[in-house]
Amino acid sequence: MTISEVSEKYGLSQDTLRYYERIGVIPPVKRKAGGVRDYTEEDLGWIELAKCMRSAGLSMEALIQYVNLARQGDETIAARRDLLNDQRKQLMKQYEAIRAAKERLDYKISRYDEAMKTGRLSWDK
Amino acid sequence: MTISEVSEKYGLSQDTLRYYERIGVIPPVKRKAGGVRDYTEEDLGWIELAKCMRSAGLSMEALIQYVNLARQGDETIAARRDLLNDQRKQLMKQYEAIRAAKERLDYKISRYDEAMKTGRLSWDK
DNA sequence: ATAGCACCTGGAGTATACTCCAAGTCAAGA
DNA sequence: TCTTGACTTGGAGTATACTCCAGGTGCTAT
Description:
- The structure is a homodimer.
- The first copy, chain A, is mainly alpha-helical.
- Chain A has one domain (about 5-120): Multidrug-efflux Transporter Regulator, Chain: A, Domain 2 (Orthogonal Bundle), CATH 1.10.1660.10.
- Helix content of chain A is about 70%, strand content about 5%.
- The first copy, chain A, has helices spanning about 5-10, 15-25, 40-55, 60-70, 75-120; strands spanning about 30, 35.
- In chain A, strands 1-2 form a two-stranded antiparallel ribbon.
- In chain A, a hairpin with a 3-residue loop joins strand 1 and strand 2.
- At the A-B interface, helix 3 and helix 5 of A face helix 3 and helix 5 of B.
- The first copy, chain A, binds a DNA duplex through helix 2 and strand 2.
């Protein structure tokens, strides 16, 4: 698969795909004649993982570490599990922060909806 | 309340508090003699709101817009409600992204835990 | 064979959100 | 009075994650 197809498929720019590979968020992609990237199914798996984790807010650094460990083989299994556990913890914190903010927004919005009827706001900012 | 007390109370650096005020994430804080900031309860409310929303991932820009609208008075009620609704939508998307990533992490972690028993990984990366 | 196009690399530039720093002011205690 | 320490401002610097660009290569269709 070419970089333009992958870009299309995952909604990541070609520059971003090359950048991810360059800094190690995904492992190196094999090239065909002329040095052109030819993405395999496995490469796509890494890209999708990176996209999923990035969209949830995981840092590039964590992803790079994970990829590095994965490339070192089976003796890094425990380290990888620990890394994933750490990231999961971070995610749960973020989840809670969003939940709290949403609750607050809901309250404010309900107040604004109420105020829309009377045309003024007497309570808070 | 002094900036050092506010910094302590909310876990935001003094630089961050001044920065927030400078760019308008919170409204201007009244000064006492010598130009020293003296935070009121209302100021604290804005700071707490900013902290809550920022920790959930809302952009500075959105917060600045909200503060600007709030400072313009009651004729911006509808605009503020719309802004909050937009931000709520963003938040829900982020919530879902985290949920999906967490699910994926949980699966991977369970696989790693399993692999810890056998000492090797046969399945995926 | 030559124009066009997709691709390549290395490096510079950008946006966001801080974070740090220099130089100065001011009030209070020794 | 002099020093200390908390505070002030404006501006520069930093980290993260892209994003853009110049200059070059190589396949393909005319």
